[in-house]
Description:
By secondary structure, the chain is α/β, with parallel strands linked by helices. About 35% of the residues lie in helices and about 25% in strands. It has two domains: about 10-265, tm_1862 like domain (pyruvate-formate lyase- activating enzyme); about 330-390, no CATH class.
Amino acid sequence: MPQLSNPPLSLYIHIxxxxxxxxxxxxxxxxxKAELPFSKYxxxxxxxxxNDLPQVWGRVVNxxxxxxxxxxxxxxxxxxxxxxxxxxxxxxxxxxxxxxxxNPGTLEHDSFAAYLEAGINRFSLGxxxxxxxxxxxxxxxxxxxxxxxxxxxxxxxxADNFNLDLMFGLPGQxxxxxxxxxxxxIDCQPQHISxxxxxxxxxxxxxxxxxxxxxxxxxxxxxQDSCAELLTAAGFVQYEVSAWAKxxxxxxxxxxxxxxxxxxYWRFGDYLGIGAGAHGKITLAAENRVIxxxxxxxxxxxxxxxDASYISKQWQLxxxxxIFEFFxxxxxxxxxxxxxxxSARTGLPWERVEGVIEKMVANGLLLDQPQVLVxxxxxxxxxxxxxxxxx
Length: 391
Ligand code: SF4
């Protein structure tokens, strides 16, 4: 049997509150009802991290992502306390990408300069749209003017690495409106754009009462194709289904603008997840197994743990889960899957998947190249079908 080896390690930190809940959102986010327990929550996060440390002794964190919820509800002072607390407990690579999600409607809480000072070196702004009427339909707390203000705040603070989240397939959205939205995002000169489709997720307000005028599949395909052309013409390179980065040529001296943190998830790397409802995935190479962890989901339950473990559930991945999860996200990557990673990250022999891969190659869904397997154009169009083959 091949031996597992430890892949790169990331750290995800979840902040579970928002000003109010957006009707399309299925994240573990809770509308803020009173003053948030800022200090108590930072204290709990650091205790949570301490409890997880035995799983990753001696390993170095290569990226940190503070997501939510709305992390920018926490002032730079709290974020600084959090980052220095993390650094005091686990070794963080000097080159680590440290991202914080920010909602343009909450940024009066602190300047970007102060967040940079706190140790954040990449921001992800939830713009979603530049149309004020769409932002209203989406239940966002900000208007387009606040996105532009946030972008100008980022630039004047000297932040040179930021992502804009932008949705398409909005209610009543035409192709030209989707293109105008995207052009507005490009004009902000971000290093990265996450361009994703509005979907009706179960247990959201929109799933119970979908908004009128959602584009049909043909309209969505037209929007997606024309937006892809616009992004390409603007110098963005698609490296994952929804992720576009500027200057991805990291073989020369340019910085790699792809999200290093997300790439580690997609490549089946390891991550600790701290905070309410956060999930983690850790390889225990010495024990030849991979585990997943989930923390108590509701912020009140999470904060009530104090002396106990914050983990609500921990389980070991079986061979079939390892195979499926290894392929699930990597098939979405344009670069494809490094063949040597399979045994190193699952502990399983390549023969376990050889038959399926040969079939997918014969069907034209996968391209078998010397070092990598890549989804073909046909495979990308039928990604769900391709992913299901590894179930
Ligand atoms: S701001 Fe983001 S995390 Fe919060 S409710 Fe809206 S979509 Fe969800």
